[in-house]
Amino acid sequence: MITSKQRSFLRGLAAAEDTIIQVGKGGINDNLIASVDAALKARELVKGRVLENSMLTAREACDALSEACLAEAVQVIGTKFVLYKRNEKEPKIELPKDKKKKA
What we know:
Layout: H1 4-15, E1 19-23, H2 30-43, E2 45-50, H3 58-69, E3 72-77, E4 80-84
Parallel strand pairs: 1-2
Antiparallel strand pairs: 2-4, 3-4
């Protein structure tokens, strides 16, 4: 689980990213899940958008993809969403450490 500080950091990084995932009228299928998984492995942070002809909202698409790919939903704004998944073997993004100690 990522903290709000880390989520904020990832939002900043996502602003410069191109939208590479598009959810259309086909919805979320195995091919889309596989391509999102591959993109997350390569980049760790991906931005997607839901097209007008899709039956899903951006929130529904984001939640379904994050669950299918075991990724974190970073944000949803309008038709766009951002997903993050740490690559355990070759991490590309260094998240800020959370300063607070959990009791």
